[in-house]
Design goal:
alpha+beta, Heat Shock Protein 90, 2 domains, rod-shaped
């Protein structure tokens, strides 16, 4: 039943105010009869009833006009004090309810100002025109206590409501941020897998296409050479299937029985990568400057994929039979340059063929904390240059 009332009362504020006003008006009569020992009973004439009625009715507007309600109930309380009534909680109840509502709906400065103003006027009225038989301490401390109490309760209620609202707002903000971060991570993972699939498919399919074309040309004139290249074509397709399986396996759950096969590609497999382009007619020279240093797993894979995509673009667009891969190890960065010198046919830029090769390489470099530049060389050919950060020396030594 208590829980039902708690849910019902906020939905019926007008009914609550009517009940409160009726209760305050009813409490005025026993309160007006309270006196100190040896003194006459309090007021019983119609002015007291009129003042009590006005003060109680003013409570009905406490939610919409809290300041006006305080002023009206304060004037009524001063009238009661002037009639010689003992200022108890039963008599000044409407003023206490009005101050509580004002403290709950307004700021602390406003509530304290109205309370201090009310205490001053009520105590002054009680001292000047009130009953002369009441002790001075009772005339002063009674109104002070009864008016400070509702103000303190109203301020506490307002602060607690503000705290709960702030906690709820922070929880909602955290939930929205968590959902946004989750969507962002899903998008990043999807883009990373898309880049991997693009690199794997583009690299192996282009090599397979070139090898198949070579086999067709050599079948009639050089069957032995055509048979050898056909065997390399089978290895190329098998390698493509293996890398595709490893990449798509990232989408599976951890409890799947199948796991990705083979090590993660990196610069350690750079020689094999360069050799894989030989059947396609591209000779790749790899040079290393400086002392080789280990990279993080992500940067190592990024470096491998950038070189792979750059060499694939050379095979597709450059029309040349040679390319150069240069690795430059500095103190804190690794520079990678993939260069071709162009061929006899007019090369087409990989950035203008509608593909995503250069875009994917640039995204990979940025995700690893590096940068990438790609464009035509003044002396001819095309160049892809990237810089990737190396781990601090302390991490290198620990590794």
């Amino acid at each position: 039943m208590i829980h039902s009332l708690r849910r019902l009362l906020p939905r019926r504020p007008r009914a609550v105010d009517l009940v409160v006003a009726a209760a305050l008006f009813a409490c005025f009569f026993p309160g007006s009869r309270m006196t100190l020992p040896g003194h006459d009973p309090g007021i019983t004439s119609w002015p007291g009833v009129l003042v009590a009625g006005v003060s109680s009715l003013a409570v009905l507007w406490r939610r919409t006009l809290p300041r006006t309600t305080v002023v009206v109930t304060l004037c009524c309380a001063m009238g009661v004090a002037g009639l010689g009534c003992l200022l108890t909680v039963l008599v000044i109840g409407p003023l206490m309810v009005a101050l509580y509502t004002l403290a709950r709906l307004s700021d602390r400065t406003t509530a304290n100002l109205f309370t201090a103003f009310g205490i001053t006027l009520l105590v002054g009225t009680s001292l000047v025109v009130g009953s002369g038989g009441e002790p001075l301490v009772l005339k002063v401390l009674g109104p002070v206590f009864w008016l400070l109490l509702p103000t303190s309760l109203g301020t506490t209620t307002r602060l607690r409501a503000a705290y709960l609202e702030a906690v709820q707002a922070r929880a909602e903000h955290a939930e929205r941020t968590r959902e946004k971060e989750a969507r962002h991570r899903v998008t990043e993972e999807r883009m990373r897998i898309a880049r991997d699939l693009h690199d794997v498919v583009a690299h192996h399919l282009i090599l397979a296409n070139l090898q198949a074309g070579t086999v067709i040309r050599l079948l009639g004139t050089r069957p032995d050479e055509a048979e050898r290249i056909a065997g390399e074509l089978a290895g190329t397709t098998l390698s493509a299937v293996r890398e595709l399986k490893a990449t798509v396996g990232l989408l599976r759950h951890a409890d799947d029985s199948e796991t990705s096969s083979g090590p993660t590609p990196g610069l350690a497999q750079l020689a094999d990568l360069a050799a894989s382009f030989e059947p396609a007619g591209l000779s790749v020279a790899v040079t290393v400057e400086g002392k080789p240093q280990p990279l993080s797993a992500g940067a190592d894979l990024t470096a491998y994929r950038i070189v792979q995509e750059a060499l694939t673009n050379v095979t597709k667009h450059a029309g040349t039979g040679s390319a150069e891969v240069r690795l430059r190890y500095a103190h804190d960065r690794l520079g990678i340059t993939v260069t071709d010198h162009g061929g006899t046919t007019a090369p087409s830029s990989p950035a203008t063929t509608g593909g995503y090769g250069v875009i994917g390489m640039r995204e990979r470099a940025l995700s690893a904390g590096g940068r990438l530049r790609a464009g035509h060389r003044p002396q001819g050919g095309y160049e892809v240059a990237t810089e990737l950060p190396l781990p601090p020396p302390t991490q290198n030594s620990l590794a």
